[in-house]
Automatic annotation (TrEMBL):
InterPro entries: Ish1/Msc1-like
Ranges that cross the membrane: 14-32
Domain of life: Eukaryota
Pfam families per record: Ish1
Protein name, per record: Uncharacterized protein
Keyword terms, alphabetized: Membrane, Transmembrane, Transmembrane helix
Organism listed in the record: Pneumocystis carinii (strain B80)
Length: 78
């Protein structure tokens, strides 16, 4: 059976392993990278949860704008 160029490339372990490592690194960086998202894009539930985790007082009746302002002020302090 005649060998094709693909057979030759796949038989070279170095190229195959290099390809696998590059793809694995790319996927890892993509999955572990910070998802930059502004508080304006968060849901109300996410805003309340973030404020609770950071021990910042808020009222259940606070509007979305008030929650966003509290988060932004807290982020500026950090």
């Amino acid at each position: 059976m005649k060998r094709t160029w693909l057979d030759g490339v796949l038989n070279q372990k170095f190229l195959l392993y290099t390809f696998v490592v590059v793809i694995t690194l790319a996927v890892t960086v993509h999955l572990w990278s910070d998802k930059i998202c502004l508080p304006d894009e968060w849901s109300d539930e996410m805003l309340r949860e973030w404020l609770q985790k950071n021990h910042i007082f808020f009222e259940e009746t606070d509007s979305r704008e008030v929650l966003i302002e509290k988060v932004k002020i807290s982020l500026k302090k950090q």
